[in-house]
Amino acid sequence: MKIETDYYSNFVEEAKEADIIFSDHEGYALIRVMSLLKEKTGVKNVALIQASNLKSVNSLRMISKIRGLDYLSLLKYLRNKYTDSVFRKYSKDIDLVLGVSKASIDDFMGNGLVRGYTPWKVLKPSNAFDESLLKYSTLNKEDYAVFFARLIPEKGLFEIPKIWKKVREKVPNAKLVVLGKFFNDKFKRRFMSLIDDLGIEYRGFVSKEELYKTVAKAKVIVYPTHFDAFPLATLESLALKTPVVSYDIPSIRETFGSLKVVKFVREFDVERMAEKTVEVLRAKDYSDWFDDEYEKFIDFHKSWKKVADAEYNALKEFLDSVKPSF
Asked: Which CATH number fits domain 2-127+304-321: 3.40.50.2000, 3.30.420.10, 3.40.50.1110, 3.40.50.300?
């Protein structure tokens, strides 16, 4: 945090000329930087919240359940307690909260991380996919599933082997392809030790083209996430016409709940996750899942310009509301 504040202290003069000091991430160190710059300039602060389910994920019980009970889990819990306290202290200087979902805002305000009277707005759309990936979209599927994400426990990394073991009990030759980068070598070693003889292939961090081709040809995406506000992985999968089986956490339900092509199961229900995955793997034809509701959703989220416009309009509306009248 000191490194961040020392660095951004060099930009006080530039900040004085700004209309808004804006952070597009809820990192506690960035919130501290915004508070520092506001103190020195008086410029309004705006934070974009892109995390959700923090109250649950940051509890010691959940950390232990997701990561395992060891000293590193305890250290993570203590770190979270510290960073939350920093966030609470300096969030008093946030003048507007933007969120990629209502669940993300509710989570921060419900936790007391942001004061309840702080103005807020949900961006619509708040996320998009690169329209060029639509050229890979297909219903001509091959017989495998995919898991891709930041490879961390909060995305369900260590539940994947448990889920896939149960899938293989019903579909003995079922294959799962894992794509992404591990957060650290400890996670990688542990995950690789769990997937022997389970039909799980780890391909690493691949190019966008290879990612899109692999996801587009998959029959289903397995996504047991505990920590998302609006997952781009799910959005890109849907744009590629690949169904998703996901845990039913608030932000995922809010964003994708109206779509037939996203199948929800209760969080931590590994058995039901496997059952739903098997149902999709065995489906002969799921073209009717891609209905008018799906088409409207994809059309709404296929432009980053729309996201930029939503952000711009939210900031302009805020500035207009606080502009002094003479």
From this structure: 3.40.50.2000
